[in-house]
Amino acid sequence: MTTEIRERAGKSKDIIKKDGKTFFEFTNRTTAFDGVKKDEFAHKGEICCKLSAYWFEIMESEGIPTHFRAFVPPNTMEVKHLEIIPVEVICRNFVAGSLLRRHESGDAVPAGIEPRLGAKILDPIVEFTTKFEAVDRPIDHEEIMKNGWLRREELDSIAECTRKVNNIMKRRLSDKGIILADFKIEFGKNSAGEILLADELGTPDGCRFWDLDSYENGEIVSLDKDVYRYDKGDLSDVYQRIYQRICE
Ligand code: TMP
Ligand code: ASP
Questions:
Q1: Predicted local confidence at residue 10, as pLDDT
Q2: In contact, 130 and 137? CB cutoff 8 Å
Q3: What domains, with CATH codes, occur in the chain?
Q4: Centre of ligand 2 from the C-alpha of residue 130, in Å
Q5: Does residue 101's CB lie within 6 angstroms of at least one atom of ligand 2?
Q6: What residues contact residue 2 under an 8 Å CB cut-off, 6+ apart?
């Protein structure tokens, strides 16, 4: 008899351990603002799973190691077993979200950046936040190292890898008329100590996607979870459309 162990991995995914293998199940659960908003949306898990598989395969073909092993339809993927590094890595090409909120509550924005929704950031920012705290907060390199989570050279290689992932996704999305405003990624370590791209990738849960034509006409049209965060439209509908634009 095979036993299956299921546990929650973050707010929208479950991890399943079965026959010595590890699987990520993408559910329809949706949360925002550290769990303040919570709902379920049809097809969301399936769409985020298919999009992650799509992007992980692209990264592997570009020489970036990931935890992806196989897509198991409709909403599961087999992954390599990793120990997740307890930081989230955020990369920003345009001003939005918490960068703007932090500025509005008194923080200075980094030099050379206009604190306006939609302003372009010429040299993309890579920043870190905590992962396992009740409310994720920005964390600097010194604290990450002091906590023993990463060594300096690991931090540098994660930042460099994040910039590579950014360039690959940005270029491919731009060919489809989509702006990659920002995104979040996570990394994990395998038993050999190698760092691999983990979690999910290139989904409307973890990225801000904006329609390029609308942006050029002075309007930001979100094709991502911001439609749910800010009540701007139907999530299932928007996720279906972005999936078709990226993958079909
Ligand atoms: P932020 O502007 O709220 O910091 O978000 C930056 C990007 O990271 C945005 O594309 C959404 C994504 N993100 C997550 O995927 N999970 C999170 O918990 C947070 C805070 C952001
Ligand atoms: N995913 C996070 C949460 O559940 C934050 C967000 O995406 O807004 O709160």
A1: 78
A2: yes
A3: 4-79 (3.30.200.20), 83-233 (3.30.470.20)
A4: 13
A5: no
A6: 18, 19
